[in-house]
Amino acid sequence: MSCFQITSLGAYLLGALDPAERSVFERHLNTCHVCREELIRLAPLPGLLGQVNLADLELPFDDPDPYDNQPLPPITALRPVPDPEPRKSRRTLLLVGAGVLVALLVAAGLFIPRMVEGDPVRVADPSTSAPPPPTWSAMDGKTGVGASVAMVSHGWGTEVRLRLKDVKPGLRCMVVLYAKSGTREVGGWWGTSDTDGEVIPGSSSFAVDGIDHMEVVADQQVLVTLRPPG
Ligand SMILES: [Zn+2]
């Protein structure tokens, strides 16, 4: 099953929709599991979710009867007075953005299938002077959930590899990164399985040393908070 509105998803993630288009698409997102699953699938892509307001992702989902999924009016119909020139250049930009997104998707599909513990893990080359990626771990006394995260620095920000322990299967989780500057980003979404120690990939536009702490959240509840040691 597909949805014709899914073409707006790339623009939405890239922050290229204007406020009216954005709110139309967000309303649609709230009632369409096709677009929502695609949104979740795109979540680990670098920096993209930095564009999405966390509050939007926390909205409760209430899908109506799947057969009652009425198409919304085309976004173009809602646009008030056209201003051809800037619009044109933005559309071009948007198309470029969509192309980049497709390329990222292809890369993501190839490179982010989940790794299970026991898979070969990149080992730091002792001949380089770069410090090993920082790893934080924590266990929450209340929820009983343990977590560890390894952070790998990239030009675009930070790749995170999260491992959870003793988490209930079937939860929809996200990792929220808090920067020292006070801003926050969603680093990734996933559904939990009963495979303990599964590596969950995520990413953030924050630099490694700019990250203050992270929270693993499910159903608006913090399962565990990760902070630097010491
Ligand atoms: Zn849809």
Automatic annotation (TrEMBL):
Keywords from the UniProt entry: Membrane, Transcription, Transcription regulation, Transmembrane, Transmembrane helix
Q: What is this protein called?
A: Putative zinc finger protein
User: What residue intervals traverse the membrane?
Assistant: 93-112
Q: Where on the tree of life does the source sit, at the highest rank?
A: Bacteria
Please name the InterPro entries in this protein's record: Anti_sigma_zinc_sf, Znf_put
The answer to whether UniProt assigns keyword Transcription to this entry is yes
Which intervals hold domain Putative zinc-finger? 9-36
| Coiled-coil residue windows | none
List the residue ranges of the region (Disordered): 63-86
Species in which this protein is naturally found = Umezawaea tangerina
